[in-house]
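Hi W.,

Here's what went into the run:
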Amino acid sequence: MVLPMYIFGQPVLRKVAEEIDVNNYEGLQELIQNMYETNKKAEGVGLAGPQVGKSIRLFIVDLDVISDDMPEYKGFLHAFINPEILESSEETSSYEEGCLSVPGIHESVKRPVKIHVKYTDENLKEHDEWIDGFLARVFQHEYDHLDGKLFVDHLSTFRKQLIKSKLVNMTKGKFSASYKCKANR
Ligand code: NI
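Here's what came out:
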């Protein structure tokens, strides 16, 4: 089932999400499937719980869509439950990001290149590993959502000023997106 996408201005996007009790969260697998479906429909590479109105520490990543350019991500479709970022490399890189909850805005964001992470996957297996490349970038973007942060928060004062009116319009429901949204319309 495709879920409505919560758009910039919806309070749930600014809340710090709650940890999930993996053994006692009813409907977890169904929610993960719905998030995969919702993300695919919107042609995203990742989707976090708060973006579908669930203030829980869960995000999914689908990198299969970019596997034509990056074959190492062929079939990459995973859920990350209660993720943590334990360490980050000093080396950073800048890359253009967008967000399904902030439609129509793309801006370059600087982030660490490598991160040491812990998480539970969709099969409830625990992982502790270093990740890098595109996955590390998407992980950090999605992880931010769980702390009520959005990629636009990382921009310089100058860049923020340039997109301010678009963001204000978004909070009033003035934006366009090709997928089902939850906004102040
Ligand atoms: Ni996002």
